[in-house]
Amino acid sequence: MIYDKKTAIQRNKLTKSLRSFFEKEKFLEVETPIMVRIPGMEPHLNVFETDLIVQNKRTKLFLNHSPELQMKKLLGADFGNIFTLTKTFRNGEIGGNTHNPEFTMLEWYRVKADYKNLMKDCEKLVKTLAGKSQITYQNNKIDLKTPWEKLSCEELFQKYCKISLDQNRTFKQLKNVAKEKNLDTNFCKDWDDIFFKIFLNHIEPHLGKTKPTFVYDYPSTQAALAKKSSKNPFFAERFELYIGGVEIANAFSELTDPKEQKTRLIEEQKMRKKLKKTIFDIDGEFLASLESIQHNCAGIALGVDRLFMILMNKKNIDETLLFPLNKILN
Amino acid sequence: MAMTTDIKKGLAINFKNGTWLVIEAQFVNPGKGGAFTRAKIRNLKSNQVIEYTFKAGESVDEADINRRKCQYMYNDGANFYFMDNDTYEQFSLSSEIIGTDKRFLTDGISCYAMHIDGVPTSIELPPKMDFKVVTTTPGIKGDTATGGSKDATIETGATIKVPLFVKEGDMIKINTEDGSYVSKAN
Questions:
Q1: The whole model's pTM is what?
Q2: Which runs of E-coded beta strand occur in A123-278?
Q3: Per-residue pLDDT averaged across B49-73, rounded?
């Protein structure tokens, strides 16, 4: 292994300016746990499991894949604007240029805000960290001047595939229209599968190449913790930020209605069962804390290693890490 | 034609009217979606590399290719010449087809030739190979400007980034895919 001190110094600088950015914006930094009893319910994510053993009594614990539930509990306790910089873990994903099973996640939550406020935060944060209005990533010049490009999922499917998601809301409709356009839907078992197969092959490679791009208003089925759009509840107030073709962050206007949240968690729990994934309990404390959230709020998770990879112009995420698991296992 | 659901590195597939070699395969859960396999595939005739994302568990048509052990002999700039280990038959591949692999080719090195319909179309190097360091500068302690690494030239003439403790004459293991230093070789 080559331990690259130059990159480590560069990374340390970025981490410091990231913290000072949120300090200036008057956010409180909070520490969230790495081991939890109940992780988030995302149906498709695989978790790392461990056991706490006290006098022969075993308690199952999981390595957190997102500090989201903990952060919202703090919002319910009236903490105001908060952020956390923590390690998160995803099982079953390794290799390629953008994955390490253990990664650094930045999450921040704004009260009296919606996802549009978070877009502004992203613009300001990345510009501050870059320290200039244009960066070069793998020979592509990326213009950071604001406002950045904003395209809804509906617009993107229209632009690159001439398909309307809104007018093809059932599996059968979407499959047929994809077939008409000669798009591959092999092995897709539901509407979301087709969405992703098309998105990954025909849309994602174009995103954020010359300017960072916000992809917003995702289908509600893919945003279990987000508020549905008031204009069209088929979509939810969620966005993802892409820079240089890489997905960097995922944000929501937070759903704070405990009843609707419970219904959605039960659906996701069923889905996990169906997919033969580890089943978690529904976090009652999380649901209860939603009730005491006074204002609209919005939250975002940002992959710090990925953002640093772009800002340091590294081709592979491993180059931003001193101990990438990929290389250690190789 | 065999079908397989196991899209992994080294698999050859028939896809989009061509024969492709999977050079990288990665499982991903995009956003809030199900499992997909993001593959980087190389066309065995044109050497073109593309990315394609398959649904995890999707069946693909496995191509009928033959991997045969061979030995690299020499090149004349435009073409690289090899000999089949079993038949002793010689064949050549163009410099474009060899691509960046040429930096690891030195007389007598063994590798694999990929045959489609009996014709050698490309080569595949072992994922890791040992090379001797021919020249490198002595490492300077505490030199952070270089990022803890320095250049070393190996016997093929290629230049590789190595840790500061590597000396001339050392044998080192190199990842032939990205040309990175792995470890000292024993």
A1: 0.88
A2: 134-137, 140-143, 149-152, 213-219, 235-243, 246-253
A3: 90
